[in-house]
Write a structure and sequence with these properties.
The protein is mostly beta strands.
Length: 125
Amino acid sequence: QVQLVESGGGLVQAGGSLSLSCAASRTRSSIKVMGWYRQAPGKQRELVATVTSDGVTNYSDSVLGRFTISRDNAENTVTLRMNSLKPDDTAIYYCHATIRVVVNVEGAYFDRDYWGQGTQVTVSS
């Protein structure tokens, strides 16, 4: 079992910046992907940004160029730096991790997803 603990978030004016951090508890398994998703009131949860253990990043079009995701593999942490925030960025932000569990010496594995509890980001106009 892996726990994801988020920090950061809060209230900021449009055009401002915020950072979110997420720390994963220790695991013997490999954390393949870490990232952030968000869910605004009345909307489905959507991808914000992800980063693999190799450092490959992926951003939604709505945040590309404004948000930056980074990861510390040694500490099992992921950080989302959010600049030029807009009211449309208002949502609950969830940390996500995909853990790869190897089940035998032949390398068979399965992936398991974990979520944080969510942290509120509110951008005022």
